[in-house]
Specification:
With 330 residues, the chain is an alpha+beta fold. Helices cover 24% and strands 20% of the residues. Helix 1 runs antiparallel to helix 2 and helix 1 crosses helix 4. It is globular. 44% of the residues are buried. Bound molecules: 2-oxoglutaric acid and fe (ii) ion.
Length: 330
């Protein structure tokens, strides 16, 4: 339905067919989209052979929106079968789309996965799951998923987050707010650039939540070479530990992000690409159907080699014992 004011990049039919065919061939050769060195090898080879036309659409995010919607791919609603009841039971559901996501991610950088999340898979299934309605994770539904940087607790977090839509009958929007559209005075920026509070692992990382080390304090805002960037996850930030001045600045940032937030309701086939250094994303509340027709997204996370958008101090963080697995690590 509506993608609000999000910039759209429209793949022509030939480019969409090229991606579908490449993914289909990889799936036929591998028999599954489950991660293996063989599968990743095929993806890397195929991504390297993508046409310039496809590649042009996958150039870096190039506006202050900090995101774009890639349109033109298609999903066969009957062919993908019912929406899985949870990520854990998704298996090979929509497998060819997992591989499309990997091809896109590989054309933009290096896909990453987490040992502690969704069994180390490189493409996650985001579906509402019974019993998780109230959580601050992708499996929730009844609550607003508050705006956050993806995997904000970790120094190895993605530079780009990709959300590919399989099904969204109720037009449930992802929200996105760019730090480049926010108005904050210099004093607030200075306060929020101090390493004052930690960002704790979110509920998708049970193991990291049990980590024994002491949580590092991190800045929320940071001036990188190309402008202001943010690392923000209020649901996992112990704000009560900060003084009133810090809290007030944090709340002004929150209010500004809400003011500039856009709602992006993805249609099947559309892929939202979010710059995780510029944009916080979330999701509006909704009522899960739990009948096989629920909203269903595929998610991939991408590191962009050589990108210098992170404070150098992050290199010393322990990451709560979690390791980001790079698809093409040497
Ligand atoms: O469901 C959505 O639109 C976004 C969920 C989310 O935050 C995520 O998948 O990282
Ligand atoms: Fe998220």
């Amino acid at each position: 339905m509506s993608t609000g004011t999000a910039p759209v990049r429209l793949l022509d039919a030939a480019s969409a067919a090229e991606l579908h065919q490449a993914a289909g061939q990889i799936l036929a050769a591998s028999g599954t989209s489950a991660t293996s060195p063989e599968l990743l090898g095929r993806v890397a080879e195929s991504a390297a052979a993508l046409s310039d036309a496809v590649r042009r659409h996958l150039r870096p995010v190039d506006t202050d929106d900090g995101l774009f919607v890639l349109r033109g791919l298609t999903v066969d609603d009957a062919g993908i079968g019912p929406t899985p009841g949870s990520w854990a039971t998704a298996g090979d559901a929509g497998a060819v789309h997992d591989i499309v996501m990997l091809l896109l991610a590989t054309a933009m950088g290096t896909p990453i996965a987490w040992e502690g999340q969704q069994n180390g898979q490189f493409v996650h299934n985001i579906v509402p799951a019974p019993g998780h309605e109230q959580e601050q994770t992708g499996a929730s539904s009844a609550v607003l998923l508050s705006p956050h940087t993806e995997d904000a607790f970790h120094p190895g977090r993605a530079h780009l987050l990709m959300l590919g839509c399989m099904r969204n009958h109720d037009d449930i929007a992802t929200t996105a707010a760019s730090i480049r559209k926010v108005r904050l005075d210099d004093a607030d920026i200075a306060v929020l650039s101090r390493a004052e509070l930690p960002i704790l692992p979110d509920d998708a990382y049970a193991e990291a939540q049990g980590f024994g080390g002491s949580p590092p304090d991190v800045p929320v805002l940071w001036h990188s070479e190309d402008g202001l960037t943010l690392r923000f996850d209020p649901a996992y930030t112990p704000l009560e530990k900060a003084g009133p001045g810090y809290r007030a600045a944090y709340e002004r940032l929150e209010a500004e992000l809400a003011r500039v937030s856009v709602a992006v309701s993805l249609e099947p086939g559309e892929v939202l690409v979010v710059d995780n250094d510029l944009v916080v994303h979330g999701r509006v509340p909704f009522k899960a159907r739990y009948d096989g027709t629920d909203r269903w997204l595929k998610r991939a996370s991408v590191r962009v080699p050589g990108r210098a958008t992170r404070p150098p101090a992050e290199a010393a963080e322990h990451g709560y014992g979690q390791a980001a697995l790079e698809a093409y690590a040497a």
